[in-house]
Amino acid sequence: MSGRGELRASAQTLVRRFQAGDETAFRLLNEQWIERYFKIEAKDQSKLSDPRKTIIEPGGAILLSTANGRSVGCCSLLRISDNEFEKSPYFPPYAASP
């Protein structure tokens, strides 16, 4: 991983830490996956509406995968306790916009 928190997976694909402006892509990617297999619940809407407040600030992390400047996947680690995290990966066969 570079000093900027990026990992180049291939010439076109980059995995990087969540940054300002990623909120919409993170929400869209997760909504696509949830709606495909489940139903969006209030707890999902809460996390997706403000991922910085609900995931990152409590000690979790979000990674986004981009290909040619487009968000194509994401992964989040939700902090449950000091020693416990819940992993929530999502790398769809299709990509969200932006």
Average pLDDT figure: 84
Radius of gyration: 13 Å
Strand order of the largest sheet: 1-2-3-4-5
CATH superfamily, called what? Gcn5-related N-acetyltransferase (GNAT)
- Looking at the structure, the CATH topology is Aminopeptidase
Helix content: 25-40%
Q: What is the 3D form?
A: globular
Unreliable spans are none
- DSSP summary, beta strand count: 5
C-alpha termini separation: 24 Å
CATH hierarchy class name? Alpha Beta
N-to-C order of helices and strands: EEHHHEEE
Number of helical segments with 4 or more residues: 3
Largest sheet entry: 5 strands, antiparallel
Describe the structure.
This protein is α+β, with helices and mostly antiparallel strands. It has one domain (6-90): 3-Layer(aba) Sandwich (Aminopeptidase), CATH 3.40.630.30. The chain is built from three helices and five strands; from the N terminus they run E-E-H-H-H-E-E-E. Strands 1-2-3-4-5 form a five-stranded antiparallel beta sheet. The relative contact order is 0.20. The model has no long low-confidence stretch (mean pLDDT 84).
List keywords for this structure.
Aminopeptidase; 98 residues; alpha+beta
Secondary structure layout plus pairing:
Elements: E1 6-8, E2 13-17, H1 23-37, H2 42-49, H3 51-56, E3 61-67, E4 70-81, E5 84-90
Antiparallel strand pairs: 1-2, 2-3, 3-4, 4-5
Short description:
The chain is an alpha+beta fold and 98 residues long. It is 30% helix and 35% strand.
